[in-house]
Amino acid sequence: MEIKKSEFVKSAVYERDYPEKKGIEFSFIGRSNVGKSSLINSLTNRRNLARTSKTPGRTQLINYFLIDDNIYFVDLPGYGFAKVPETVKKNWGNTIETYLKSERDKVVFLLFDLRRVPSNEDMEMLRWLEYYDIEYYIIFTKTDKLSNNEKFRQMKEIKKKLEFSSEDVFFYSALKNTGKEELTEFIYEKVMKYNKNKGKKE
Ligand code: GTP
Ligand code: MG
């Protein structure tokens, strides 16, 4: 299964700017530079759909992409970059919280760089997702940067801070497209279930 069609819809800050609701949407959140935009590009087979950058914290906007004409991918602004002024951080917080609180039917993917132990901000993000009772899944990114041994060791370190079972998380390399098929299937399954339930409700 592969995503065939994808297009940029719009950037938004406030809920009133979000595009008209279509159905379920999948959002990607995580610290700046973790690979959110790269992952979206990899999933959609597009090199430059979502803008990627070596300079962290470039975008402070929520970017909406329409996938296969019926679902949205949402690229959320990254957190955790040191060099921004306090006001920007506050705005970021407002933008994210507005999104999390919004009435959208959402599934959130929280991205962690496999090479790093989750930061305090990562842990805070997790608590936010729990607090707002949002369905979320963890994706470990940049898996190509570690050998199998290193991966094993790193997972052990991460598990000291974060409780999860391996079935609950995804591993991804946007560089090599590792994990792409699994994540794509997962997304399509969610969409199918969502549409079925919606049919029942109507
Ligand atoms: P912000 O938009 O600043 O929040 O960052 P982001 O999370 O969207 O990260 P982005 O996709 O722009 O990637 C940041 C950098 O990491 C870029 O230089 C990417 O090429 C690199 N990168 C992303 N994913 C991978 C990966 O799976 N493997 C490797 N080796 N590099 C990656
Ligand atoms: Mg990005």
What does this structure look like?
- With 202 residues, the chain is α/β, with parallel strands linked by helices.
- It has one domain: Rossmann fold (3-Layer(aba) Sandwich).
- It contains 5 helices and 7 strands.
- The chain has helices spanning 36-44, 86-101, 120-131, 148-161, 180-201, and strands spanning 6-12, 24-30, 62-67, 71-75, 105-113, 135-141, 169-171.
- Strands 1-3-4-2-5-6-7 form a 7-stranded mixed β-sheet, sandwiched between helices.
- The two termini are 28 Å apart.
- The structure holds guanosine-5'-triphosphate and magnesium ion (MG).
- Residues 30, 32-38, 52-54, 56-59, 78, 141-142, 144-145, 173-175 line the site of guanosine-5'-triphosphate.
List keywords for this structure.
single chain; Rossmann fold; alpha/beta; globular; binds magnesium ion
Offer a quick outline of the entry.
Helix content is 36%, strand content 22%. It has 202 residues and is of the alpha/beta class.
Question: What topology does this entry show?
Answer:
Layout: E1 6-12, E2 24-30, H1 36-44, E3 62-67, E4 71-75, H2 86-101, E5 105-113, H3 120-131, E6 135-141, H4 148-161, E7 169-171, H5 180-201
Parallel strand pairs: 2-4, 2-5, 5-6, 6-7
Antiparallel strand pairs: 1-3, 3-4
Guanosine-5'-triphosphate (GTP) is lined by residues 30, 32-38, 52-54, 56-59, 78, 141-142, 144-145, 173-175.
